[in-house]
UniProtKB/TrEMBL annotation:
Residues 19-78 form the RNA polymerase sigma-70 region domain. One of its GO terms (molecular function) is sigma factor activity. It comes from the Bacteria. This is RNA polymerase subunit sigma. It comes from Streptomyces aquilus. Transmembrane segments: none annotated. It holds the Pfam family Sigma70_r2.
Length: 288
């Protein structure tokens, strides 16, 4: 027997445990057993597509497989290729039937792909932070922030479920209040303990700490969005949910995501980091 092939032999119990873990990761991320099966099959196709010498040099095959299946799931969660996780009639793997409820899957589906991946990999499967960062394509700190945001979103949505129609109505009302520079109306749309996070990435001068409380959040938002007539606000899809895209002239200057619970906004994330807005501005340039 070839020595290198002999070194690749793995006990059957370990093989089954490995495959079950990959299926569980994929199911939590995608929400349907067929999609999970497909993602795991693609993962193994990529494994066996590696040159033999490269595959043998991988010190931790399971880590490589988890990283690969996570990346595949993240690609499929992107808006362009996204299915509808949690579709009625999709049976979960048997060992997850009690652990993952339909309601939880629907709640996970309200997260952005990056939030969902960070939460599932970090909180559910305790994947090493470096591996999570490699899958999501952000730093470990940013992935920690994504997971924290996901936890908060899930808690608030679990307590105060919101339909997509409700979410859209609240976001539209927030945009209108900001355009009208109406602090009373804007404050009424925010939860009393609403929080605003500003992500400038150290590339623009903005607040580095969250702003807590409806009135302070209102003040900071209206200050940020002052400067019309060149500053315009548009409701657009942001990570699969309606958000607000802020333009200064022809340039996308900020992208604002809102977490809604019931009829009120509980969290606002304003991305002003030019690096993260590059693809928005490239898309805007192509449209002109």
């Amino acid at each position: 027997m070839d020595r290198e092939q002999d070194d690749e032999t793995v006990p059957i119990a370990e093989l089954l445990d490995e495959r079950r873990r990959l299926l569980n990761v994929a199911y939590w991320m995608l929400g349907r057993s067929q999609d999970a099966d497909d993602a795991v099959a693609e993962t193994y196709r990529r494994w066996y597509g590696l040159p033999d010498d490269r595959r043998i040099r991988i010190a931790e095959p399971r880590s490589w497989l988890v990283k690969t299946v996570g990346g595949i799931c993240l690609e499929r969660l992107a808006p362009a290729g996204r299915s509808h996780p949690g579709t009625v009639g999709a049976a979960p793997p048997q060992d997850l039937e009690e652990e993952v409820s339909q309601a939880l899957l629907e709640a996970l589906d309200t997260l952005s792909p990056a939030e969902r991946a960070a939460f599932v990999l970090n909180d559910v499967f305790r994947v090493a932070p470096g591996t999570v960062a490699a899958i999501v394509g952000q730093t470990e700190q940013e992935c920690g922030e994504l997971a924290a945001r996901a936890r908060h979103s899930l808690r608030t949505r679990w307590a105060h479920p919101t339909t997509p129609q409700q979410h859209d109505r609240v976001v539209l009302a927030v945009r209108q209040a900001c355009v009208a520079e109406n602090p009373a109306r804007l404050t009424s749309l925010l939860a009393p303990d609403a929080t605003v996070f500003f992500d400038g990435g150290g590339k623009v001068r903005t607040l580095t700490r969250p702003v807590h409380g409806a009135r302070r959040a209102t003040r900071s938002l209206l200050t940020l969005l002052a400067g019309r007539p060149r500053t315009t606000l548009h409701c657009q899809s942001v990570n699969g949910r309606t958000g607000i895209v802020v333009r200064y002239g022809d340039e996308v200057a900020a992208v604002i995501s809102l977490d809604v619970a019931g009829d009120h906004v509980v969290q606002i994330w304003a991305v002003l980091n030019p690096d993260k807005l590059r693809h928005w501005n490239r898309a805007a340039t192509q449209e002109r």
